[in-house]
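Worked example (supplementary).
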Amino acid sequence: MKNKVSIERQGKINNLDDLLNQFSISLRCHSHRVAVCSAIIAENANAFKNFFDIPAGMSLPVVAHLGGTCHDIGKLMLPALEARGDEYMKHPAMGADLLKKHKGVLFSNKPFAHMVIDIVRYHHEKADGTGFPEGLRSGDIPLIAGICSVANKLDHHMYSRHKHSGDAAKILKILETQVDKQFIECIWVCVERAWSRLAERYAVWNHLTYNHNRNES
Ligand SMILES: [Fe+2]
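After joint prediction of all chains, the assembly is encoded as:
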């Protein structure tokens, strides 16, 4: 069982891998999928580049990928990975605070660090203010966190061995009703542009999982 005390007391935070290596297999796989989807969505954001305030020399897909990789890092600090309710709702802030505290060693204080930390802190916020941890409304949520938020939702809908690529169009429609398109209109445009690539990825991930589980049973 991992928690804040054990992670920091063990003195293992020398680099990002020290934290990521503590992920469970399912958290590692989920984070990988969200990172890849975030990067694919960001790759289609060239026309909206100016909205994101990316530091010179850094690319939006790279920041989005890194944010997706780290977005649930706060789950390492929950008393139990399956914790829900109030405890579960603390994980974005716990993860962001941890990264902020150690950003010197984790990100060498690079100027993009605050964007990754924003992704971690705000990936569960919702445009109508019903999200957590801060209940921010659309204009106050950093746009970069919106990419990860959509990728995270996408993963919850698309990743299942019971779902297959044939459902992709239907899932896009469901997703469309769950995001505030006015707030993240530019992100939504990117999702639509990237849709065939995203659906292709999930067809592969679901196929591999389905076959693996079937072969194991
Ligand atoms: Fe999360």
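Two points are worth noting when inspecting this output. The first helix runs from residue 4 to 9. Residues 71-72, 91, 123-124 surround fe (ii) ion (CB under 6 Å).
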